[in-house]
Amino acid sequence: MASKSKATITDVARAAGVSTATAGRVLGGYGYTSEEKKEQVLKAAQHLGYRPNALARGLITGKTRTLGVVAGDIQNPFYASVLRGISNVAEANGFGLLITNSDEAQQKEVHSVELLAQKQVDGLIVTPSDTRKARHLHNLRAMGMPLVLIDRTVAGLQVDRVATDNIAAAEHAVRHLIAAGHRRIGIVAELADEESARLDMFLARAVVGDPIESETLYPSWQRLLGYIRAHRIEGLPVDPRLTLRAGSYSAAAAQAIVPRLMTAPDPPTALFTTDGTMSE
Q1: DSSP state, residue 219
Q2: From 3.40.50.150, 3.30.1340.30, 1.10.8.640, 1.10.260.40, which CATH number describes the 4-61 domain?
Q3: pLDDT under 50 in the chain at which residues?
Q4: Interval 226-265: pLDDT, tens
């Protein structure tokens, strides 16, 4: 008898008294086989300790039942929660995961996407590091690869996305502070990918209500819009000096810039941070 650790489809077929093709269909989960023969094959496989070869099955079916995930920063609690949710749903549906980390760097993201595509994953879940220049994602979509984006939108890329309504959420949070009696509310935000002059221009436009294309903005910029919208709705002026640009999502970055705001002659009475890690 074949060793249990090395049992093959041929061994299972012989033990079940069926053809190799029949055993392959049963163990691969494709095609039709009668219930009687299916039961024979499964019993033989269990007895021999057969373990399916996922690579071989993928070559036959064209499916690996594996999903690829490219996260921005797996150490960030936000991504940890997202990955847990993805893992729970994937496992419940019989899928495995291959997880990579981009560190919010597009070069690493491109490498991760190429690696996962070479692994023949059945679909990709990506947090894009660049919302405007993501040719590699456009190319994937054109090739027919199922693709879902997390947290952000890529300009011109028509795929499903799972994200928070950052503008509405920020507006709600800031209006809550206003309702509590605060009139000078500071905001500490990442606000990366823009020059300081662009920040001034962004604030000037948002304060007067100029239309701003928000769909492809990074989350921190969307939350800044919500902060400004709350002030406009409540009839409060927006003081640009209360907007602090941290440059990254981290407690260290926030700690480096907040003291100068809190020691100013007219400090805020409340702070709104656009990321949970900044308040750790």
Answers
A1: H
A2: 1.10.260.40
A3: 1-4
A4: 999 999 999 999 999 999 888 877 778 888 888 988 988 8
**DSSP letter at 126?**
E
Beta bridge partners of 98: 68
Instruction: Return the amino acid letter for 82.
Output: V
Q: Which CATH class is domain 166-279?
A: alpha beta
Q: Taking the model in full, what pTM does it have? A: 0.74
Burial class (CB in 10 A: 0-12, 13-18, 19+), 63: middle
For the record, the structure tokens of 137 come out as: 């994602």
- Taking the C-alpha atoms of residue 102 and residue 152, their distance in angstroms, rounded to an integer, is 14
Distance between CA atoms of residues 186 and 238, nearest Å: 10
How many C-beta atoms surround the C-beta of residue 206 within 10 A? 21
